[in-house]
Write a structure and sequence with these properties.
Two copies of one chain form a homodimer. The first copy, chain A, is α/β, with parallel strands linked by helices. Chain A folds into two domains: 142 residues, Rossmann fold, CATH 3.40.50; 59 residues, Guanylate Kinase phosphate binding domain, CATH 3.30.63. Chain A has eight helices and nine strands. In chain A, strands 2-7-1-8-9 form a five-stranded parallel β-sheet, with helices on both faces. A four-stranded mixed β-sheet of chain A has the order 4-3-6-5. In chain A, helix 1 packs across helix 7. The longest helix of chain A has 15 residues. Chains A and B meet through helix 5, helix 6, strand 9, helix 7 and helix 8 of A and helix 5, helix 6, strand 9, helix 7 and helix 8 of B.
């Protein structure tokens, strides 16, 4: 394996189970998950640097100007984004980092960092998605329909992801994604150090 | 996992251990290895359809004309190539197929079938490569120098492979390549069936 960590983006339909999967990946294998920066006020119990990096609007806009965010967006008068420093620091330490972000953000990250791998988590079929959303019992029927409509739209962009993983059984899926991320260490773009080393050694008539 | 098998090309420096690794992958996990067609005469003990598909020059040229070969080349008045039918048949049966071919052939396959994944096996460093070639005790120093010179040339094209795997410990490397090939089932290009299914279900208001 390479010594540097690699960056993977995980997205998926609402109800596909990505939140649980990412938590399991962190717990079982020590992946780091990026922490978002936001200008919204902390809620009860939220700690700076743990749940979010809390920033003023001026600080956030300075980060944008400095190119200090991997991606950002604004919702309802607040900014949300992924600070680059924290991610880079983990990668340098040899820790693989997972960014759990929605599709639009993911595609923006890929545009800016083509070497990043995008993983999309999908349930085995649309019926299962509806059942999972309804089974949660936390959302109104109206919200569920909106989420399904959004999933139907997102379908059109699945092709832009590098890997599509089917979450049929949570446990199996966590292991499969772990196996996938480990395998991604062998991607040519992540082995540039090894390639350069071999070239150098051959040039010096090993 | 998808029901169809996937096609992977494995190449590597002479002395990188790819022959042994491919044999282990077949023995441990039931991968199919493509069988080459050739116009050269069978040697003692070689069976048609097991070691090679033996063809006349006319038969081979008809296969070229029919587009029945994934790749081919001619060496010393004989043709060598990879028949498409055998590979396609295995893939349809859900069996993953490995093509163990040298770099030039591999890059030709990639050009024609961009969805194929190319894996390059390298020793940890050039010194190990020399030691392994010398340790075999089967080649003259002259042949070893030629192989090393060829490896030095091949270095320039490593970047065109999709994955670079370091063979430091044979056993570990076999498991890593198995993990990699299994993970490649999730590649977007291999999940077109799942994507089409989700699109269809959402279109029918699941």
């Amino acid at each position: 394996m390479t010594k540097k960590g690699i960056l993977t983006v995980i997205s998926g339909f609402s109800g596909a189970g990505k939140g649980t999967i990412v938590r399991e990946l962190v717990d079982r294998y020590g992946y780091a998950v990026s922490i978002s920066a936001t200008t919204r006020d902390p809620r009860a119990g939220e700690q700076d640097g743990v749940h979010y990096f809390f920033k003023t609007k001026e600080e956030f806009e300075q980060m944008i100007a400095d190119g200090a965010l991997i991606e950002y967006a604004s919702y309802v008068d607040n900014y949300y984004g992924t600070p680059k420093d924290y991610v880079m620091q983990k990668l340098e330490q040899g820790i693989d980092v997972i960014l759990e972000i929605e599709m639009q953000g993911a595609l923006k990250v890929k545009e800016r960092f083509p070497e990043v791998s995008l993983i999309f988590i999908t349930p085995p079929d649309a019926k299962v998605l509806r059942e999972r959303l309804e089974g949660r019992g936390t959302e109104t029927q109206d919200v569920i329909e909106k989420r399904l409509a959004r999933a139907a739209q997102e379908c059109a962009y699945m092709d832009q992801y590098d890997y599509i993983v089917i979450n049929d059984d949570l446990n199996v899926c966590v292991e499969q994604i772990h196996g996938l991320i480990q395998a991604l260490h062998w991607k040519c773009v992540n082995q540039q150090g090894q390639i350069a080393k071999m070239k150098g050694e051959f040039a010096n008539k090993a």
